[in-house]
């Protein structure tokens, strides 16, 4: 008897779909790549051809130069050999998609990275019933239960108002997290200009070109200290403690990351204002998603595989871990 999903081959650098002769999120160059989203642990340059959403292809173009891309919109299906391939929203970042594979009566969904809570910068996650669900496990431990997003943004705004002579310097991953923090601030009524590190400009422009409202963004490089006081400043996490930040008026250092749930991480990084804000599903979102989809089998990757596999086995849900390489922390 054939094993469920035996037409897929998990390799350390990606998942090979044999009857389609294509790879999903390969970390090495391949002739044909299906890409879930634009983060570097899932998307890279150098492939012969790339199938992805139009937004993901635009992100890859911005990061790696023009790609040999074939756009596949949400809800659209294409045929690759005997496999029908579709892309549905994953709710992770702009353009992120789950890849739905139908072959000889079996359906496999490769989720990439995903989250279930609302995000003004991307299309919400869409659950798809399937035989095999390939799930991420970045925060797959019960300790990771992300707080309400609005409450975290309110903490940021309150600290800003309490310190009008200082600025708040927020470290956030350049793709997805930075734009989400800005958009969440706008949704909470914060319409003041937000200053940004030069490394964020290109992707912020791309998000705005795709209809995401980020409001007035100003480059830190063109501003005086007095101009920046009382404002939010966004930068990549790596710039929080480097010389660049010395031009700022007594910054309150913050970081937006799911890892801020771990107090020791905040202490190690000298974070004064930890903001627990993640673009990945937390423990409850992961387990609720598996309960809702109810696949015959769960394949777990990118993170805390053991705990989620154990949770599945306790509920008579067949599960196994995939040892894929290339996982990137993303400071999320």
Automatic annotation (TrEMBL):
Domain Metallo-beta-lactamase: 11-173
Alphabetized SUPFAM superfamilies for the sequence: Metallo-hydrolase/oxidoreductase
One GO MF term: RNA endonuclease activity
The protein, known as: Ligase-associated DNA damage response exonuclease
UniProt-listed Enzyme Commission number(s): 3.1.-.-
Keywords noted in UniProt: Exonuclease, Hydrolase, Ligase, Nuclease
Cited InterPro entries: MBL, Metallo-B-lactamas, RibonucZ/Hydroxyglut_hydro, Xnuc_lig_assoc
NCBIfam families in alphabetical order: Xnuc_lig_assoc (TIGR04122)
Claim: Chloroplast is one of the keywords in the record: no
């Amino acid at each position: 008897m054939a094993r469920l999903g035996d037409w897929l081959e998990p390799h350390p650098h990606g998942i090979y779909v044999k009857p389609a002769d294509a790879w999903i999120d390969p970390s090495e160059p391949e002739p044909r790549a299906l890409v879930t989203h634009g983060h570097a642990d899932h998307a890279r340059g150098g492939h012969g051809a790339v199938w992805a959403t139009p937004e993901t292809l635009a992100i890859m173009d911005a990061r790696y130069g023009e790609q040999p891309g074939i756009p596949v919109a949400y809800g659209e299906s294409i045929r690759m050999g005997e496999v029908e391939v579709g892309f549905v929203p994953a709710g992770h970042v702009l353009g992120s998609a789950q890849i739905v594979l139908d072959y000889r009566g079996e359906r496999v969904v490769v989720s990439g990275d995903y989250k279930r809570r609302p995000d003004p910068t991307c299309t919400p996650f869409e659950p798809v019933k399937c035989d095999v669900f390939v799930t991420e496990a970045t925060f797959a431990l019960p300790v990771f239960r992300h707080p309400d997003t609005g409450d975290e943004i309110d903490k940021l705004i309150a600290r800003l108002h309490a310190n009008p002579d200082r600025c708040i310097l927020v470290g956030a991953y350049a793709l997805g997290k930075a734009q989400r923090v800005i958009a969440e601030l706008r949704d909470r009524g914060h319409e003041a200009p937000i200053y940004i590190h030069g490394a964020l400009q290109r992707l912020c422009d791309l998000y705005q070109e795709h209809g995401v409202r980020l409001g007035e963004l100003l480059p830190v490089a063109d501003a005086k200290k007095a101009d920046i006081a009382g404002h939010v400043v966004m930068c990549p996490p790596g710039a929080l403690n480097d010389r660049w930040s010395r031009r700022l008026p007594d910054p309150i250092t913050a970081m937006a990351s799911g890892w801020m749930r771990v107090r020791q991480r905040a202490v190690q990084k000298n974070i004064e204002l930890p903001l627990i804000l993640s673009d990945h599903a937390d423990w409850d979102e992961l387990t609720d998603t598996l309960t809702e989809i109810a696949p015959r089998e769960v394949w777990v990757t990118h993170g805390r595989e053991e705990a989620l596999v154990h949770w599945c086995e306790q509920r008579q849900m067949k599960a196994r871990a995939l040892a894929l390489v290339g996982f990137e922390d993303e400071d999320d």
